[in-house]
Amino acid sequence: MRDRLQTADGTADRDETTDYETVSVPVLVVGAGAAGARVAISLADAGVEPLVIGKSDHGDAHTTWAAGGINAALGSLDPEDDWTVHAADTLDEGHYINDPEAVELTAKHMPDRIRELADWGMPFDRTDAGEINQRYFGAQSFRRTCFVGDRTGEAILDALVAKAQDMEIPYRDNVMVTRLLTDGERVAGAMGFDMESGEFVCFRSDHVVLAAGGSSALYERHSSREDENNADGPALALGAGARLMDIEFVQFHPTGMVGARYGEEWDGRLVTEAVRGEGGRLLNADGERFMEEYSPDQMELDARDVVARAIAQEIREGRGTDNGGVYLDISHREDQYIRDRLPSMVERFDSLGVDITEEPMEVAPTAHYTMGGVDIDFSTGETGVDGLYAVGETVAGVHGANRLGGNSLAETVAIGKLVGEHVAGQVDADAAPALTDGQRALAEREFRSLAALEASDGDVTARELLADLGEILWEHAGILRDEASLKQGLAELDALRERTADLRIEGDRTSRDFEFAVDLSFSLPIAEAILRGALERSESRGAHYRTDYPETDGDWQRNIVASEEPTGLELRTRGVAEPSPEVQDAVDTGYELDYHHLE
User: Fold this and answer.
1) 3-state secondary structure 38-88
2) 78 and which of 142, 357, 527, 579 could share a cystine (Cβ 3.0–4.6 Å)?
3) 175/234 Cα distance (integer angstroms)
4) Residues with catalytic function
5) pLDDT digits (tens, 9 = 90+) for 39-60
6) CB atoms within 10 A of CB 298
């Protein structure tokens, strides 16, 4: 990674002896959300004992914030649905730059993964006939989204963690990985520190799986908590020699809470799509249901990019609320129905003095998900760097230019199982490799660098720089983009990089200040990749909207691949494969949601 931050004068004591803990394991899984947990379960099933590490307490991963549901073509309510239609919807929503293999593997395996989760105790909502219930989500042809009220992600992670604990899979929480241990050709482990004790840790493993989330929290306004989706996964992979793909595609969820009304701590936090899936209506400040103008057929359940741009347009043209949002209203549904289907939303807003059974919520778009990430082979999880694998939101491919709601959780368990099975086949289960002298030297160099970072005593904090970076991305690589603004964003990013030489750390390695400084080193290269990818793609496609190139260009049905070269970040394009004949048939049939079933 080019953006490792140092002391104000850029020096460190090279002769200092650095103490650190060494842990040797057959497989290291970095990230303890649904993707990492499902990989670990597959490994354990195959007789390989991994170590799972996470930045937060066990069971408290970002997965818990994915509230509305998980997709699988079960046909509980719409028997004509099947995996090929699920795949076709995913390709259509991704504007046909998805990896077709990734899409088909996810869609094909999801019915079994849902039944598996139910067998593991996940309490899915059920129909009167006892089938797993399904709801509408935006841009889906049928009711395909399985759910547990509006806390589906939490229920999935609970089920996976319980299964992992039953299998006695080792786990270590509150550990932050700062760099992968690699010689540039293969991975030999990872380095980091214990966030509670401050102790340095070197993990020695010939197989490392990155399941560390995405990059949406780089934006000023986002739906993640401040210690999640900080670009750890893609930045670690890029620094180890892996490629990134489609990093310019960032999904702006239409309905984030408006901090000016609910308080800064809630600004951008997600109001689940389940509200709209259950019939919620979007109204501007004049009380007009404005989606009738933008999407009269699919209304509030059109693709997320369409709805987000519509809201942004209403606000820009002066029809937003005084707080800079619009209204989302579900109060026309029966009170008990709302309380049964959306209990978390009822509880959250009630704590803020809003009864959503009686009055609307105030919402505006928020950065929510990164479709781009590490370029992998989806049947194996391989990144092109020997021994390094990736899965979940850390990777690109399933979602293309825009993610179908309910597919993020689906990808974690469908692909996570396959990656775990593949990695298990590459591992000597009894191997506990020791550090070589060369690897030890690499680890000690990293720990000296971190010690130097801790000693930084300049004039600017990492928190300030991250806030400024968030503004740069929101302003220049947000919902609406153009060439002049993107170039200005790159210039501002260069200026921000120069300011990192004057960094100040307030506290030791256990402080949030130090954690934010490490986050900053991840954020800078990924922010550059987002801006440069968005500048390179001279068209509008899905979540990437260029006001100077407002049309989709058939010649741009290509992926942008980024790699770190000696001269800096290098971009190139690559063509997209064709879907299978059965999925192409479903695409050609042109299935489409009839929103008015909800009326």
Assistant:
1) HHHHHHHHCCCCCEEECCCCCCCCHHHHCCCCEECCCCCCCCCCCHHHHHH
2) 142
3) 18
4) 253, 276
5) 999 999 999 999 999 997 765 5
6) 19
Question: Considering only CA atoms, which of 231, 280, 95, 204 is closest in space to residue 522?
Answer: 231
- CATH at 333: 3.90.700.10
373-374: strand order across its sheet: 373-374, 244-245, 558-565, 568-575
- Section 386-404 average pLDDT: 96
Question: Is 448 found in the same domain as 570?
Answer: yes
Element (H, E) at 469: helix 462-476
Helix, strand counts (H, E) of the chain: 17, 22
| pLDDT above 60 for 252 | yes
* 136 assigned to some structural domain: no
Do residues 273 and 409 make contact, with C-beta atoms less than 8 angstroms apart?
Answer: no
Tell me the pTM.
0.90
User: Domain residues for 506?
Assistant: 437-574
Q: Is 297 exposed, middle or buried (0-12, 13-18, 19+ CB in 10 A)?
A: exposed
On whether residue 183 sits in a domain, the answer given is no
Residues 289-336 pLDDT 10s: 999 999 998 899 888 888 999 999 999 899 999 999 999 999 999 999
More confident residue, 6 or 233: 233
Domain endpoint, select from 367, 383, 403: 367
357 and 266: one domain?
yes
Which pLDDT belongs to residue 14?
36
Q: What is the CATH number of the domain that holds 455?
A: 1.20.58.100
Number of domains in the chain: 2
